[in-house]
Structures are given as structure tokens and as C-alpha cells.
Design a protein that fits this description.
Length: about 170
């Protein structure tokens, strides 16, 4: 489809459904500001997908996108809250600048997205190795699993992370 036609399809989709989506999000979130931001983000995703002309059920499609954005919003707030709680335990003079804090939150969100999709046990084993520096035998003992299972978990986690990184490069 030509760019002009794609632009027209997005414009029409926005004109017809933006108000409805914004209202739907406002009811779900109870916050007009967050609803407006997420409604806009949903349409940005439609623009990036370049498939507005192919959407058969626009409201269903937009709700699917919006639900994912809501999950991301809550994940971000949870991570940010946990980070700020840890930061509050440090002397104020050791706190990073607001810019650095924002970069740390973004990095945590990227890591969270990358690890999403790993099973809880695989994720736990991976984090014990990467964050706590435990050896595979130590992880096996801590999780009460065999060393072979730890090896399998780590291979699965590394494959998952590599595939995620490749996907990010392509997007």
C-alpha cells in the first residue's frame, strides 16, 4: 500500500477510534493523563506496524495494544518504585542524578522485557548466575535441582536473550 493510503488509513482509524480508546483506558486506569498517553502510544504502534489498512476489527486490535501498554506501565511503575526504595536506603549524597536515575529505570525495563517469557525457574537460575555471581553448582544447591538442569536452564536463558537482542536489532 502506498504511504499516502497508509497515512489516510491511520488518520481515519484515529478519527473514528481515538476518543473511544481514550475513554476505555480512562475507565480502566482511573487517570485521564495516563489514558491520554497510552492512547497516543497505541496509535504510534499502529503507525510503526504500517498495517492500518489491514485491521479488520479496529477496537479489538486497539484494545489488545492498549492492554499491553497498561501492563508495561504497571511494570515500569513497580520497577521504579522498587528502585527508589533501594535508593532511599542510601545516603542522599550518593544518589545518582535524575538523568542517571531515568537511564537506570530504562535499563531495568529493557532487562525486564528481555527476561519476560522465561519460566520462573529459568529466570531465577539466570539471575542467580548473572546478578549474584553464583556458580552452577551453587545454583543447583540453592534451587535443589541437578547441575544438568542448571546447565539446561542457562542454555535456554542465553538463547532467549540472544534471540531477544536479534529481534531488537531488526526492529
Amino acid at each position: 500500500m502506498s504511504t499516502v493510503t497508509q497515512t489516510e488509513a491511520v488518520t481515519e482509524l484515529y478519527r473514528v477510534h481515538h476518543g473511544w480508546l481514550n475513554g476505555w483506558l480512562r475507565r480502566k486506569l482511573g487517570n485521564a493523563s495516563d489514558a491520554a498517553d497510552l492512547a497516543q502510544d497505541a496509535f504510534v504502534r499502529v503507525i510503526r506496524a504500517r498495517n492500518a489498512d489491514l485491521i479488520a476489527e479496529p477496537r479489538h486490535y486497539l484494545v489488545t495494544i492498549a492492554k499491553g501498554l497498561v501492563v508495561d506501565l504497571f511494570r515500569r511503575r513497580s520497577l521504579e518504585s522498587q528502585y527508589l526504595e533501594l535508593l532511599a536506603q542510601q545516603p542522599e549524597q550518593e544518589w545518582p542524578s535524575p538523568e542517571t536515575r531515568a537511564l537506570v529505570i530504562e535499563a531495568l525495563m529493557d532487562i525486564d522485557r528481555m527476561l519476560d517469557g522465561l519460566g520462573p525457574r529459568v529466570k531465577q537460575a539466570f539471575l542467580l548466575a548473572q546478578c549474584d555471581g553464583l556458580t552452577y553448582p551453587e545454583i543447583a544447591a540453592r534451587l535443589e535441582i541437578s547441575l544438568r538442569t542448571v546447565n539446561n536452564y542457562m542454555a535456554r536463558a542465553m538463547e532467549h536473550c540472544c534471540l531477544y537482542q536479534l529481534q531488537q536489532v531488526r526492529e
